[in-house]
Design brief:
alpha/beta; 9 helices; 26% strand; globular
């Protein structure tokens, strides 16, 4: 199964009439943040594939719709039409499923080659970046760690039901010392390193780190997980072997 991964930049190869032909063999899309949701809309409407997204630390105009505590909803500033259409109340919007601070069981299924049973693709997501100027959707490492802890009950249920915690972790920021930089804005989260060691996703897909050098590393293996920088776009493949056998 192939996944188109995008983040941080509107790529002309994506935002073009040729997207349908160019990515016709893609099965789903992962959006790793800092993208206008109109761009996500375009991808969804063009490819008509399951699409999952999180927010980064920019392009946050609609962030309040997905997080009531950060929105005018709690202050009573939205009218009833806005509330009725708000993703904060239904969990969906822009044709894509928001996976920020959630562990979800998707409608994409894999077959276990050992048992013949079908199980859903398991995605866990985390929005935002490390705190660097007290802006929206920025967190200390401790704050992000707490958000990860809150997802553990669902992960444990996944392990009981499907024999694994998660297949793909979709985030904006990176694990610490894996693809990150040393300036205050682009440091990774140490708690992501902990998550990878504990829950062993096959892929950790992130954005936030811009790649302007073709020699820059896009994929790094860390503790058995492939950490992928989705800047611009890239395509990854996930197989039954990777999920059920290689990653035991």
């Amino acid at each position: 199964m192939k996944f188109l991964c995008v983040s941080d930049q509107i790529d002309p190869l994506i935002y073009s009439p040729g997207i349908k032909e160019r990515f016709k063999d893609v099965d789903a899309v992962l959006c790793a943040g800092d993208l206008p949701l109109d761009y996500v809309d375009f991808i969804v409407s063009s490819l008509n594939k399951p699409t999952f997204f999180i927010f980064g630390n920019h392009n946050l105009e609609d962030f309040h719709l997905y997080h009531r505590q950060n929105s005018a909803i709690t202050a009573g500033h939205l009218n009833m039409a806005e509330i009725g259409n708000s993703a904060a109340f239904n969990g969906f919007g822009h044709g894509a499923e928001y996976t920020g601070f959630k562990s979800i069981r998707t409608n994409i299924f894999f077959t276990n080659p050992e048992t013949g049973k079908k199980t859903p693709l398991l995605i866990t997501g985390a929005s935002g970046s490390i705190r660097y100027n007290n802006g929206m959707n920025q967190y200390t490492d401790t704050q992000m760690f707490i958000k990860l802890l809150l997802m553990i009950p669902k992960l444990l249920i996944n392990k009981i039901l499907y024999g694994r915690y998660v297949d793909i972790f979709l985030a904006h920021a990176t694990p610490r010392k894996v693809h990150d930089l040393e300036d205050n804005c682009h440091k990774g989260f140490s708690c992501y390193n902990w998550f990878i060691k504990k829950f062993k996703p096959v892929y950790f897909v992130h954005g936030h780190i811009h790649l302007y050098d073709s020699r820059a590393e896009r994929v790094t293996e860390y503790e058995g997980t492939k950490v992928v920088n989705a800047f611009g776009y890239t395509v990854i493949e996930l197989t039954e072997n990777q999920i059920f056998i290689e990653n035991k």
